[in-house]
Specification:
Helices cover 24% and strands 24% of the residues. With 384 residues, the chain is α/β, with parallel strands linked by helices. Helix 6 packs parallel to helix 7.
């Protein structure tokens, strides 16, 4: 199966009076950031310390990518940093380069393949599951989460999508993307590195500072507001879909087993998260902890969707490690549930397939022509 994916920047023309309101700084060389006190002599020339308003969040001047999903699954609009090198420069200036990386800030083939597969699965559940709940681990830009929210909205069923990542900037971008799609956004991050995140409005797809909103006249366009945690309201034309954001460290047992999320999701999605065996163990444990497991699991079987680059150099066998750890954690949970007299439906590997995703410029790799193979697995709960 081969899928050609078109990624384009939003280059729509803006009225002249909106230009000054875009979150883009003029070049100011060697200007120190008031939070990290670092100078920017080595940072890109168009940014002051690679983040606007000194809030350590690089964003697009023209704010979103249009991601055409495989299998005619529509287009997801994604807010993301203008350049991952800008994000890397920011981390270096904040002395966080060894703790954080900028991989969350760009679209990846596995996320695009998972987005289409997630939408397919939700369509299969149409009529069987009322208000499905989907959780994405290590969401980055949240392309699968946004695709799931779109599928739930268009099906008129409504539902909940929880996008999890340990990087607040990533969650902020997902919140803005969800606002573009007019979903109900809950728990958008308010600050990062002790800096308040921008309060923004989306007005006819124009990204403007909140205090400037009155200068934009678009009376026929509904406004969606995500202001550092302020909820958005969906329009009446779509079923209500709630997009929740959670800062999650999957190595933290308390966070993984948080009461609000434990055993409460019909689908858990994980894409491009298998960087090392320790990650395979932690992610698989989190999947088991958050997936429904008893009689409340849907008739088709609550499940885990894994998407991973097929040829990840130096990481051969890590998907098998994930499988082994997933089965082990699931068996442990089953023993605990059955010991207390509860019902438990065990996970089974239902299917595995490979799809090819073609990334167009500027995300294509000249070494492979932009074609990337992605391996997907669907695990589902079944009665014994």
């Amino acid at each position: 199966m081969s899928s050609s994916v078109l990624l384009t920047r939003n280059t729509s023309a803006r009225p002249p009076h909106t230009q000054k309101h875009l979150l883009r700084l003029p070049p100011r060389r060697n200007a120190p950031c008031h939070k990290c006190h670092a100078k920017t002599s080595n940072a890109p020339t168009s940014w002051e310390l690679a983040h606007p308003f000194s809030d350590h969040l690089p964003v697009l001047a023209k704010p979103h990518l249009a991601v055409a999903l495989p299998n005619a699954r529509g287009v997801v609009r994604v807010v993301c940093p203008e350049d991952v090198e800008v994000v890397e420069a920011m981390y270096q200036a904040l002395d966080q380069a060894r703790l954080r990386d900028a991989t969350w800030g760009e679209p990846w083939p596995a996320a695009i393949a998972a987005a289409a597969a997630c939408a397919d699965r939700l369509e299969c559940w149409n009529g069987q599951v009322t208000s499905p709940r989907v959780c994405e681990l290590g969401c980055g830009l949240g392309i699968p989460s946004l695709a799931a929210a779109s599928a739930l909205s268009s099906s008129r069923r409504g539902g909940t999508v929880l996008a999890c990542d340990w990087e607040p900037r990533a969650l902020w971008c997902v919140a803005q993307s969800a606002a573009i799609a007019r979903h109900h956004v809950v728990n958008a991050p308010r600050e990062v590195d002790d800096c308040k995140l921008p309060e923004v409005n989306w007005v006819d797809d124009v990204f403007v500072a909140k205090e400037e909103e009155t200068s934009i006249a678009c009376p026929e366009q509904p406004q969606d507001i995500v202001a550092g945690g302020v909820d958005t309201a969906p329009t009446s034309s779509n079923a209500e879909v709630e997009v929740q954001l959670e800062a999650l460290n999957w190595f933290d047992d308390d966070a993984v087993n948080a009461k609000h999320a434990k055993h409460s999701f019909d689908m858990v999605v994980a894409t491009d998260v298998l960087y090392q065996p320790a990650f395979a163990d932690a992610v698989s444990r989190c999947c088991v902890a958050r997936l429904r497991h008893g009689s409340d699991a849907c008739a088709e079987g609550a499940g885990v969707l894994l998407a991973d680059a097929t040829r990840r150099r130096g990481k051969e066998g890590i998907r098998d490690t994930f499988h082994d750890r997933l089965m082990a954690h699931d068996e442990q949970q089953a023993a605990e549930a059955e010991a207390s007299g509860g019902e438990y439906r065990r996970l089974h590997l239902i299917s595995e397939w490979t799809t090819s995703v073609t990334m167009d410029a500027p995300f294509a790799d000249s070494n492979d022509g932009g074609v990337h193979d992605v391996t997907l697995r669907w695990y589902a709960r079944r009665r014994q």
